[in-house]
Write a structure and sequence with these properties.
Distance between the termini: 52 Å
Largest sheet: 9 strands, mixed
Number of helices: 19
Structural class: alpha+beta
Strand content: 25-35%
Helix content: 25-40%
Radius of gyration: 24 Å
Low-confidence stretches: none
């Protein structure tokens, strides 16, 4: 399936072209804007003032795919104060009142005028790798932003690479995506967000256009593009997923019980730092999977669930990962294509990028998907969906037997901010709610609620994993939950090794039974049993408070209040028993 050009989509009534799209389309069609490919962008990026070349060779297979010269080396694009996403800079055009829309349009036209005083470039990519879900996209920026345009082509797929397949596809009822970026934009008007320096992400999700102004960080281009892709998927009836998913095949295992399970997919939803990539990308779940299994990863960050056809479809051919746990010599460096905000060291006469966040937090790299081993562009419908939480009152794993409790726990997913985001120190300390772990959602929350209710109604089972630690004697005195414990639980769920009992405090939820846990993780049941939490009255009161916060969050969410019947179903199940 392919998207439609501006003319194709609006040709029945061109007067309906929204102003943000008309402004973007006019800039794209300026004949002075030079169209480039990945090799051109790479060459320009090497001369960019904030880009440093290294002696780390780009993964040869990726370099060949991108048309780069043999032996091309990894570029390191380094920023100043801001090294993460700035969600507060987003302004949603369709949510603004009339005077604010007119003001923003005037500021936008002025910003485009400023851009046109400099040499501009554009590039085209295809978002999506499955033939039944592809969107054409164009990015425009200055030659001084070539690194972001190169990284965008790396992160997605240069148009010419999939052009033949794309052009044979039937058309989807959605527009091509347009991304306009200008790192040099400055506007001191207090209407726009200023933390570090002025930034603006201006979004019109209805016409698939986003402007990134004053934003050097590549994650803004990537997530801006995905924001529109996810929204497009929602528009054609698919659930949008900021998460990772992998498919196992146990039919080759010697263990007869494992062999009977056959194929099974599992998906994880969480913000950076919750274990999403660790759960998705772990080769063998810390050695807890039976001999003879095979695994295919779809992606660790973004996909769409097509419930009608019971498949999942991927958007990107590359991983955009933190490198804080990848020192010099780590095997993943073989697969690197580009890095951002890395320290460099001279090692044996070569200048190499160094992970471990030595220079700043949130060092990132674009890594070829070959790092995952075997991967696919579509996989089977997920039997298991896991919300990755940071709530000290929740045991390490919970299973949901009530569909709307599973949906509600995703809608009120409790977590903490992290250093991948440009937020204040105070914000980093707060517990926050990020529905379905997707801070990039730009459509109404009720649409996600309906989409995930459909996923569970189609046979998926919901779970939550808690990674922050579980109450020992207080909200700050915690039993640690090691990653190895969580990976063991994941394998036990996949292999049907857990037996469950109702959690008396939360109807519709279950916890693992003692007998099975003693075989799998001795001591787990007593350590993480809510009945054994010290200062139990305080624990239960805090648990009640957390669920009251969940209800309050949903009740205060404007794009749920417009659907009172859906809101009532969610808040009804988010209650701790007296």
């Amino acid at each position: 399936m392919a998207s439609q050009s501006t003319y194709e989509f609006y040709k029945s009534d061109l007067s309906k072209i929204p102003p943000l799209r008309a402004i973007a389309e006019t800039l794209i069609n300026d004949k002075r804007v030079r169209k480039i490919n990945a090799a051109d962008a790479y060459a320009l990026a090497k001369t960019q003032w904030d880009v440093m070349d290294t002696d780390q060779e780009i993964y040869p297979k990726a370099a060949k795919r991108l048309g780069l010269p043999e032996g091309a080396t990894v570029l390191n694009n380094c920023h100043g104060k801001i090294v993460g996403r700035t969600g507060q800079a987003r302004r949603f055009y369709n949510n603004l009142n009339g005077p604010d829309q007119r003001k923003v349009l005037g500021d936008l036209r002025e910003a485009i005028s400023d851009m046109q005083q400099r040499p501009l470039i554009k590039a085209e990519a295809i978002i999506g790798l499955d033939k039944d879900l592809m969107i054409r996209a164009t990015i425009v920026g200055g030659e001084d932003d070539a690194a972001n345009i190169f990284n965008w082509l790396v992160n997605f797929t240069p148009y010419e690479e999939l052009a033949a397949e794309y052009e044979k596809s039937a058309k989807l009822p959605i527009q091509d995506i347009i991304i306009i970026g200008d790192n040099l934009w400055r506007n001191e008007d207090s209407f726009y967000h200023n933390q570090g320096f002025p930034q603006l992400a201006l979004v019109d999700e209805e016409c698939n256009v986003i402007y990134n102004f004053g934003m050097r960080y590549f994650g803004e281009r990537k997530k801006g593009t995905l924001t529109l892709a996810w929204t497009s998927g929602i528009r054609v009836g698919m659930a949008a997923c900021h998460g990772g998913i992998k498919e196992f095949d146990f039919s080759g295992c010697a263990d007869e019980n494992a062999k009977k399970i056959g194929q099974r997919s599992i998906a994880f939803f969480g913000l950076s730092g919750t274990g999403k990539s660790s759960h998705t990308n772990s080769h063998d779940n810390g050695g807890t999977l039976p001999e003879g299994f095979s695994k295919k990863v779809l992606h660790d960050d973004a996909f769409q669930i097509d419930t009608a056809n019971r498949v999942c479809r991927v958007w990107e051919p590359t991983l955009f990962d933190k490198t804080d746990s990848r020192p010099v010599g780590h095997p993943d460096w073989e697969y690197m294509v580009s890095v951002m905000n890395h320290a460099t060291l001279e090692v044996d006469g070569k200048v190499l990028p160094v992970g471990q966040d030595l220079r700043n937090p949130n060092g990132r790299a674009l890594i070829d998907r070959d790092v995952l081993g075997e991967y696919v562009n579509r996989c089977k419908f997920p039997e298991v969906l896991c919300w990755l939480m940071k709530d000290t009152c929740l045991p390490p794993v919970i299973r949901f037997t009530d569909t709307y409790l599973a949906v509600a726990m995703g809608a009120a997913l409790m977590t903490k901010r992290n250093l991948a985001e440009n937020v204040s120190e105070e914000e980093l300390k707060k517990l926050v709610f990020v529905p379905y772990a997707n801070p990039f959602r730009v459509y109404e929350l009720w649409k996600d609620v309906e989409a995930f209710a459909g996923v569970f109604d189609c046979g998926a089972t919901g779970y939550s994993f808690n990674s922050i630690g579980f109450w020992n004697s207080s909200d700050s005195d915690l039993h640690a939950i090691p990653l190895q414990t969580s990976l063991t639980l994941q394998s036990s769920i996949l292999l049907d090794k857990l037996e469950w009992e109702d959690w008396d405090l939360l109807p519709g939820a279950q916890l693992p039974k003692r007998n099975c846990m003693e075989r799998i993780l001795p001591g787990f049941y007593d350590t993480y049993n809510p009945k054994n939490a010290e200062n139990n009255d305080d624990y239960i009161q805090t648990l009640k408070d957390r669920f009251a916060q969940r209800r309050h969050f949903l009740e205060q969410t404007a794009d749920l209040n417009c659907k009172p019947e859906i809101l009532a179903k969610l808040t009804k199940v988010l209650r701790i028993k007296d």
